Amino acid sequence: MSKIIGIDLGTTNSCVGIIEDGKLTIIPNDENFRTTPSVVAFTKDNTILVGNQAKRQQVMNPENTVFSIKRFMGRKFNDKTVENDIKLVPYKLVPADNGDVRIQVAGRIFSPPEISAMILMKLKKDAEAYLNEKIDKAVITVPAYFNDSQRQATKDAGKIAGLEVVRIINEPTAAALASGFDSKTKMRIAIYDLGGGTFDISILELGQGIFQVKSTSGNTHLGGDDFDQAIIDYLIREFLNKEGIDLRTDRVALQRLKEAAEKAKINLSELESVEITLPFIAVTKEGPKHLKTILTREKLEELTKHLAEATAEPCEKALNYAGLRPQDIDEVVLVGGQTKMPLVREVVKKIFKKEPYLGVNPDEAVAAGAAFQASVLKGDIRDILLLDVTAFSLGIKTEGGLFSKIIEKNSSIPIRKSEIYTTTKDDQSFVRIEVYQGEKPMAADNKLIGTFDLVGIPKAKKGEPKIEVMFDIDANGIIRVSAKDLMTQKEQAIKITPDSGLSGSEIDRMTSEMGTDFAQKILRGQKESARQEYKAVMPVDDSMSEGGALGETQKEIKEETQDKKKKSIFDIFKRKED
Amino acid sequence: MPKKLNYYELLEIYPAATQEEIDNAFRLALYKYHPDHNPDRPDWAHERTAEVVEAYKILSDPIKRKIYNFLIFASLKENVEERKFSIFQVGEKKKFEEALKDFKEGVELYDTNKANALLKFQQSYATYKMHETIYNMGVIYAVTNKLQDALRAFKEAEKLQPENQHYKRVIEKLAELMRDIDRVKKSST
């Protein structure tokens, strides 16, 4: 059987892992970094850059550089969160015919799965180069709080990139697999996963190799990006007060602010204060203006306290659903880059009344878990099994527009529930079923998954036909609806109209386009040209980069954290081998 | 259609199994049926795993397990005893036949739609009072967790046929079950 890689397709960064001969490897990209920025750029010379190269030229090319695409996966253009995000990204969003989000960039329209596919393509190529072998299968992770449309979109992205997505698994569950806890003894762990764009909390029970998720909760729109935005907003406010210039309308300035904000945030996890210097941030009649300010950890915590504390409610909900108290949890595992922030760790400590467990690498644990699951599916690991839950209730619209639940949230998956339907008129030949996901009492307030029409029902008096409709949620968390005529025991024909997503033919077209045209563009001009662009960008960049005022300290910190990383990955091996 | 295995049969345990035995059986069944371990027959694995998960959910909850055990004991009556009518009871006989029709429809609906089955039984009982009908209503009440209503229905059935030993035992067991549930509820508050 061919190799299966595990991919953490993150909002800001992605990571790839594989298990070979029982050993975990995090696969470095073509520039030897263990994570790859989830950024795709379309350059003037018709090249597509992905990863570090795309990120480096972001400041110069903001309109044609797509980041945080995960926020738009499986979403509608009129979605509230999209309405908000549209103001924060410099690239252009437009609605598709079915209301889904589309990206307009480099004179073309792309679906979010296509952009994600470009990232996946790059990860796949790097893995192939590293492993010296063709890769066509992957396990991809998604936030536990991803709904059916978002999961489907992720699966589509894999397909477009030429990858068979053998399993979609939840990020916190993947992290639990990689936590290295001895699953033989019974214990309860909480996975607190605060990534670039999403927050997930999952409570698991471990025992005899089974990783059983008890409950999950979260927020698909709370992550490191929001922390960055809080800093950006602060810098903009300060600059407006001091210079009377509003930077919000300048896309290049915004991009430079974002980069500086992220860097400052990361450094403030280790340092007490940093200097942010952005020369030539604005040009006025009197001449160029520079942004120069000191940001302290204290100020940062003041700016982002509400964000860190917003994670408490989902945690309490998850504990409630699992029927547990904070003291019943044996370990709280931190995952996701944002959990490196001391303030976040303080909040976790307050919620769970114990010190969080720091034994896993927050940037790599999810990819490592995906790699373990890949190994299970390949049949190499036989003594581990994941049993996840669905984060949303599934139901249908009934009379008066009410939402009638069929599968409760936090039910273990795979799950199957069936309902019997009949006709209300004589000789009625079809019955319509609208399937929704969510918790609100009115169907319309929940997320419409699709419309299912039972068609070609044989002629009969009203109430006589008996059609059993099966609602399945598979191990990927993806919904399937099928139907059976109980009178004839035959499969009942069903016409499925999904509310969102790509059609089969669209996916086919994108797949072939990706395999030929885009693949060439992505492959063209890898490393070398990227390095040149990097140099071209540098002179106008801020002093926080290498060689600047803080250059040396930063370098030291970087080396130190890399050392720590090595150590904790080593720990994972060790515990797994035990 | 093959008859569905009951949860004990599915997990391959005895009805008196301890929680530890149920936990172990659940894990073994997962390893056996889970789609991850059965890549060559995903649909079969999905269906079986879904059943195993449901079985474990019920059997590892003490109250749900007790109700489940009770329901295995108090299964639905599918047939009605023959009734003898004299020539003076033509009207009664007609009512009986009408009630019997609803009774049969109720039995047919039981597996697929409990609410409609209950409606049919209620209709049947309003037309002609048969102990089998009110007993079946009791079973549906019990399945849908309305234990007080169930007890009342079973007692009604017993009143109509006092010599029926099964009814007596069902009432005894249900009363015992309700006492247990009360005890568990009290101890948890």
Detailed description of the structure:
The complex is a heterodimer of chains A (578) and B (189). Chain A has 578 residues and is of the alpha+beta class. Chain A is 34% helix and 28% strand. In chain A, strand 25 (467-473) and strand 26 form a beta hairpin. Chain A starts with a strand and ends with a helix. With 189 residues, chain B is mainly α. At the A-B interface, strand 19 and strand 22 of A face helix 2 and helix 3 of B.
Short précis:
The complex is a heterodimer of chains A (578) and B (189). With 578 residues, chain A is of the alpha+beta class.
Q: Could you describe the largest sheet of chain B, including whether it forms a barrel?
A: none
Annotation field: number of helices of chain A: 14
The end-to-end span of chain B amounts to: 45 Å
Oligomer: heterodimer
Which runs of chain A of at least 5 residues are low in confidence (pLDDT < 50)?
528-578
Would you count the extended β strands of chain B for me? 0
Question: Uncertain runs of chain B with pLDDT below 50, 5 residues or more?
Answer: none
Q: Report strand % of chain A.
A: 25-35%
Following the backbone from N to C, one meets helices and strands of chain B in this order, namely HHHHHHHHH
- Round the Cα radius of gyration of chain A to an integer and report it: 25 Å
Structural class of chain B: mainly alpha
What is the arithmetic mean of pLDDT of chain B?
90
Q: So how many helices of chain B? A: 9
Terminal CA distance of chain A: 27 Å
Determine the most extensive contact between two protein chains.
A-B, 25 and 21 residues
Question: Beta-strand level of the residues of chain B, as a percent range?
Answer: under 5%
Gyration radius of chain B, in Å: 20 Å
Helix content, binned percent of chain B: over 70%
